[in-house]
Amino acid sequence: MGGIKRQGGEMDDMRRAAEDVLIEAGALTKCDVHGDVYDCDSDRLASAYPIANSKISSGQIVLPSGWTRKDFTDVVKSVYEDNSNIDYCPSCDKNDRS
Ligand SMILES: [Zn+2]
Known about the structure:
Structural class: mainly alpha
Mean pLDDT: 88
Largest sheet: 2 strands, antiparallel
Radius of gyration: 15 Å
CATH architecture: Orthogonal Bundle
CATH class: Mainly Alpha
Bound molecules: zinc ion
Strand order of the largest sheet: 1-2
Low-confidence stretches: 1-5
Shape: elongated
Number of strands: 2
């Protein structure tokens, strides 16, 4: 009774890949200490898209079957938006206040 559950795993993989693209573009920053991702520079979101495309072209990012480049750039945008309201590492902030 496995059913089709691949969708969720694929989305997790693609969100992780999108996060890497955003970090590489400088749109998001990852805390070296905690690994938390937070907003860095919204102007750099645009440069994440060509990075995504070149990673797909070079095979560094392998899209699940049925996915288009547009689907992936949509994920890039949504991962950015999910983190764009955080402008500091939440864990570092907690430590600073303790
Ligand atoms: Zn931190």
